[in-house]
């Protein structure tokens, strides 16, 4: 894949664009306006500079990646892409609209249309396009340049050739480990992770334990790299809520219902790291 498109340059899209560009592709990143473009560029630059400073990425590779990325607010610029990876907000109406636009602009009928959704059925996105057999889920993990996993989700209509091409791209070019999941809410990882995060929020909400003790328990007692509340802050409370809602809607199990505290904090804009305040404070 020499010509890659990424739609959305938030937490996930910026990481996907970075690794695709570092792998040598020409990457066009579509954002909704120039302010969002600026924030996306800043995120990529921060990540690349940290990687260079830590000796993880050679300076010339980072410079090549910088030169390989082009921002746009126009979906028409995606016309010659071989693969487009959508990574906009976890909102079904927005994603459906974005998929319609991508499908209308990408000219190659065999180009792959991938989504980084963590919870929306792939088939729903596929059905608004003229090429459902080329639509697939490619679910990355945050931070994308650091975490090696990609979940690959075929819908009932995704062709075996599409899965094979995406698997080869993820493993051989992006150097990720691929696991496959059926097209069910949460896929494999979030079906396990989200109930755990919700349990931690309920534990805090009920006064059972403090945020610090909950997180220290899992970091020091179970050697997790971060505790569940800090991880919810990293993922974003809004995204965690959206995934929990999809899981609950699909399976109707009480442990998947989002706790009120998660909803109220999201409504209050206390979304975690990205807003400077979630269960913990990130204001400098
Ligand atoms: N490219 C390559 N390497 C990079 C890099 C980049 N752009 N940026 C940083 N790195 C390297 C660093 O040099 C460091 O390497 P080292 O371990 O050899 O020193 C390593 O990556 C970690 O980077 P940090 O400096 O940020 O170090 P931390 O030690 O503070 O780790 C963390 C932070 C990676 C976030 C770690 O705490 C972690 O893995 N936490 C768990 C995250 C997790 O579970 N994510 C999954 C969320 S679920 C999800 O995303 C799905 C969604 O649908 C909800």
Could you provide a short overview of the structure?
This protein has helices at 11-22, 34-53, 59-68, 92-105, 122-126, 160-173, 189-205, 211-222, 228-235, 237-251, 260-267, and strands spanning 3-7, 26-30, 69-72, 83-86, 112-115, 135-140, 149-154, 177-181. By secondary structure, the protein is of the alpha/beta class.
Features:
Rossmann fold, 2 domains, 11 helices, binds 3-hydroxybutanoyl-coenzyme A, 284 residues, eight-stranded mixed sheet, N-(1-d-carboxylethyl)-l-norvaline Dehydrogenase, domain 2, alpha/beta, globular, 8 strands
Query: Could you state the CATH homologous superfamily of the largest domain?
Result: NAD(P)-binding Rossmann-like Domain
What is the percentage of strand-forming residues? 5-15%
Low-confidence stretches: none
What ligands does this structure carry? 3-hydroxybutanoyl-coenzyme A
CATH architecture of the largest domain: 3-Layer(aba) Sandwich
How many strands, which pairing sense, and closed or not: the largest β-sheet? 8 strands, mixed
And the CATH topology of the largest domain?
Rossmann fold
Please state the structural category.
Answer: alpha/beta
Number of domains: 2
On the 0 to 100 scale, the average pLDDT is 96
With strands numbered from the N-terminus, the spatial order across the biggest sheet is: 3-2-1-4-5-6-7-8
State the end-to-end distance. 40 Å
Number of helices: 11
Order of helices and strands: EHEHHEEHEHEEHEHHHHH
- How many strand units? 8
Shape: globular
The CATH class label of the largest domain is: Alpha Beta
How much helix, percentage-wise, in residues? 40-55%
């Amino acid at each position: 894949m020499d010509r890659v498109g990424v739609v959305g340059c938030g937490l996930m899209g910026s990481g996907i664009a970075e690794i695709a560009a570092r792998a040598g592709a020409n990457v066009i990143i579509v954002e909704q306006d120039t302010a969002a473009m600026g924030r996306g560029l800043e995120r990529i630059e921060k990540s690349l500079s940290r990687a260079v400073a830590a000796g993880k990425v050679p300076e010339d590779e980072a410079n090549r990646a910088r030169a390989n990325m082009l921002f746009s607010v126009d979906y028409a610029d995606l016309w010659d892409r071989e693969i487009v990876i959508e990574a906009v907000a976890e909102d079904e109406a927005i994603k459906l609209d974005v998929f319609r636009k991508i499908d209308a602009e990408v000219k190659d009928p065999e180009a792959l249309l991938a989504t980084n959704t963590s919870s929306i059925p792939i088939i729903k996105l596929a059905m608004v396009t003229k090429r459902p057999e080329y639509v697939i889920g490619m679910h990355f993990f945050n931070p994308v340049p650091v975490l090696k996993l990609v979940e690959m989700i075929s819908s009932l209509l995704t062709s075996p050739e599409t899965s094979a091409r995406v698997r080869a791209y993820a493993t051989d070019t992006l150097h990720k480990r691929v696991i496959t999941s059926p097209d069910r809410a949460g896929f494999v990882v979030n079906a396990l992770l989200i109930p755990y995060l919700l349990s931690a929020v309920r534990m805090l909400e009920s006064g059972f334990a403090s945020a610090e003790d909950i997180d220290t328990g899992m970091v020091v007692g179970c050697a997790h790299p971060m505790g569940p509340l800090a991880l919810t802050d990293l993922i974003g409370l809004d995204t965690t809520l959206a995934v929990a809602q999809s899981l609950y809607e699909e399976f109707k199990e009480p442990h998947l219902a989002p706790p009120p505290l998660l909803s109220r904090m999201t409504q209050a804009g206390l979304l975690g790291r990205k807003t400077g305040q979630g269960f913990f404070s990130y204001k400098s």
